[in-house]
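Many introductory courses stop at the sequence. We go one step further.
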Amino acid sequence: MPTLSRRTLLIGGGSAVLAAAAGAVLVEQGVLPGRASAERALGMTGPAGVVPTTEAGRRLQGSFASAARGGAETGWTISYPPGSAEGDPLPVVVSLHGYGGDHRSSFDHGMHLDRFQAAGRAAGEPAVAIASVDGGNDYWHPRAAGRDPHRMLVDEFLPLLHDRGLDVGRLGLFGWSMGAYGALLVGSTLGPERVRAVAASSVALWPTPQRAASGAFDSAKDFAQHDLTTRTAALGALHARITCGTADAFCPGDEQLVHRITPAPQSSFTLGAHDWSYWRRVAPDQLRFLAAAL
C-alpha cells in the first residue's frame, strides 16, 4: 500500500472539505436529491419533536355538506382537554391543515395535537379546545372554481362550534405550511376583534405568483389579492407568533414577513426542516402561546 505524505493528506482533506461544502450548497439549493435526508445527516434540522404519552381527552367527529365548498362533504374534529367535555364553554383553537391533509392531520396521523393539549393541561395550562376541519388544497382562500374554504370556516364551521357550546369569541388560529398561511390570511381578514391569537408554523410563502406552487393560486391577480406581504398592517394588529426551521426553503420569506410587520409578532427561527419532526417540536410552544392568549 503506498505511503501518503502529510502534504498529500492535507491537500486531500482540503479537497474533501471543499467538496462537502459544495455538495451542501447544492443540496440546500435543491439541486441535489435527498435534501431532507442530507439536512438531517448534516445536523441542520435539530432534534425531532416527541409526541407526549399523556392520555388525551375526549374527541368528537362529524361532517357536513359545505355550501361554501361546492357541496363537498367536509369532515371535522373537536378535541377536548382531559376533564372537559361537549357543552363546556371553552375557548377554541381552530387548526388548519397543510397541503394534502384533512381534519385528521391535526390529530391521528400528523400533529397529534390532542396529546400536546393533554400534556399542557397536566402542566397547568388553561383548558382550551382544539378543532380542525377539511379545507381541501385550496390554500384557505376563495377559488375561481367556486370553492371557498375561507367562507366555510367563518360562516359554517365557527357556527357549528358555537352550537356545541364552544366560545368562538375567544378564538385562536393555528396552522402549519399551507395551514399557517391560511391562519394568517384568515386572521388578517377577521381582525383582532374576532381572533385573539394566531400561531403559524412554517408559513408557505412565495415571492411571486410565478414561483408559487402549482394550484396555490388561480392567477397573478388571485396571488396579489391574497399576498400576506401586502397585509402587514392587518397582521400587525394581531397577537401572532410565527416560527420556521432554518433549513426550510420558506424560512427567508417568513423572516422577511416578520421584519415587515409592525409591531413585529413573536417569532422563532431555529434548526428545523419542513416536516413533522419540526412541527411537533414547536407545537408545545405554539399551543402554550395560544392558550395564554385565550
